[in-house]
Amino acid sequence: MKKNTLALIILAGVLLRVICGYFVYGFIGFDEYYNGIDPAGIKLFLDHSFVYSDVARSPLLFYLDYGLFFIASKVFSIESPVNILRFAMIIMGLISSVTIYLSYRIAILLDAGEKTALFTAALISFYFAMPFLQTRLMVESISSLFIIISVYFFADRKFFMSALVLGIASMFRFHVGVIYIALLFVMIFSPSLRKGSGGFILGGSLALLIQLMIDYFHSGGVLSSVIEYTRFQSGVFLTHSRQPWYNFLLLFIGLSVPIASIVTLTSLFRAGVKYYWLGIIFIIFVVLHSLSPHKEDRFMFPVIPLFLIMTGLGMNGLKNIFIKRNILWLYSVSIYWFWVVNTVLLFLACTSPTMTNVSGALDYVRTNNFKTLASDSPIVPKFFTAYKGNIEVVQKDGWKKYLCSLNTSDGNYIHTIYDPLDVGIESSAKTCGVELNYIGNFKSGYMDRILAKLNPKYNYRRANGHLYLVSKPKRSS
To answer: Residues 156-214: pLDDT tens digits?
Structure first.
């Protein structure tokens, strides 16, 4: 019966990731696109001889994306960029589903009990952020997969493999290396783990050797990607936006589902104390990232599955504490509230595509004989046009100048992420003698639109995408 329960949890998790990969295609950040999707798309659609040359980044994301795109295009004969991206994201989701089973095994190896193990697996499977997180083509998401595999090997006392896999996680996201350093210190100062430190060092050394080989063949240098990345970040350190030191603290409070936090954060704390090595690596990762002035939520993606596993582990025996204090009702309300809120958020997260206000418009013009598209979006991903046609970027206050310079209507499209009335597209077109045919508003998913409402300064670009076809050029003088 328990095996059947685990199988159902895994199967449901796999299905959720397939649904999320299909409906929530796209990207959420510049790095995800420009360091992976875009160069892989260039090699697939535009220039088969293209060589990824950014020495400040690991080439692994590029090779992973290109490999998935190549399989989709050449093996399964998928032509649409949208469907190629969907294929890649679904495959990532299927691969990452292994963490559902591994979270169960981690709980069993740590003697947390069968019931706690199933609850932990259910968290990884059904938690609202996980299908989204595990279908992203982001270094942060990919590294989170390897972190959980590493934690599994560590819990199973296979320290060599734990370090080696953690090293692979670090190759995708260099910052993950702090977890290796933290675990090594824990092992050295822990009598019960000290004997395994030799194997852990050996595994880490092998991972370092692999990184040296990758850098040598990629750029001809020694640890060149790490060095150049550090140099690049130090150069733009003062130009990045700055967030308060408690930014990530608020993030995890939010992820704990407030009200239910009475149970979930208590559970997290209990697991962090009992399984101290998990607590230490989680705290060190969060604290060190909090010391940096620039903070983005995606920086915490690598440890969100770890956060959930610890929350699940801490549930072992927690109910009895509430019973002894005659507040079982509080425990029950918290659990019910958690799953109700999570279910609503899970539906939104698995059905709300990202940045389709831009990618949807590009996909439309790709199939409708476009030659030029002008847009005021800060990012115009050519991937969705299969690198056909010409893209022109126009500032939001530059539409009149652009429209008055048009001399052809042949396959010419206008795209704005702003209200057309606010940027004066239609009035400018009238002044310039240009006739426009309104195609429609390519809205992004619910989540993007909610984010745009909550924080319009940074997320307005995610909400709307008004598209026009130039039906008549400027009159000749």
So the answer is: 999 999 999 999 999 999 999 999 999 999 999 999 899 999 999 999 999 999 999 99
**Which of 162, 172, 165 is closest to 136 using CA atoms?**
172
DSSP three-state, residue 54: coil
Query: Which residues have C-beta within 8 Å of that of residue 182, sequence separation ≥ 6?
Result: 280, 281, 284, 285
* DSSP, res 476: P
Question: Is residue 438 within 8 Å of 466, Cβ to Cβ?
Answer: yes
The two tokens of residue 58 are 């690991």
Q: How far apart are CA 313 and CA 11, in angstroms?
A: 22
The pair phi, psi for residue 375, each rounded to 5°, is -140, 150
Say if CB 144 and CB 172 are below 8 A apart: no
pLDDT tens digits, 140-155: 999 999 999 999 999 9
For 338-411, where are the E strands, in sequence order?
372-375, 390-393
DSSP at 354: S
* Two tokens, residue 426: 């239609």
State the pTM of this model.
0.93
Q: What value does the CA radius of gyration of the chain take, rounded to a whole number of Å?
A: 25
Q: Under DSSP, is residue 470 helix (H, G, I), strand (E, B) or coil?
A: strand
Kindly state the tokens that stand for 257. 């589902």
- For residues 19 and 131, what is the distance between their CA atoms, to the nearest angstrom? 9
In contact, 116 and 313? CB cutoff 8 Å:
yes
Contact call for residues 418 and 467 (beta carbons, < 8 A)? no
Decide: 167 and 207 in contact? Cβ < 8 Å.
yes
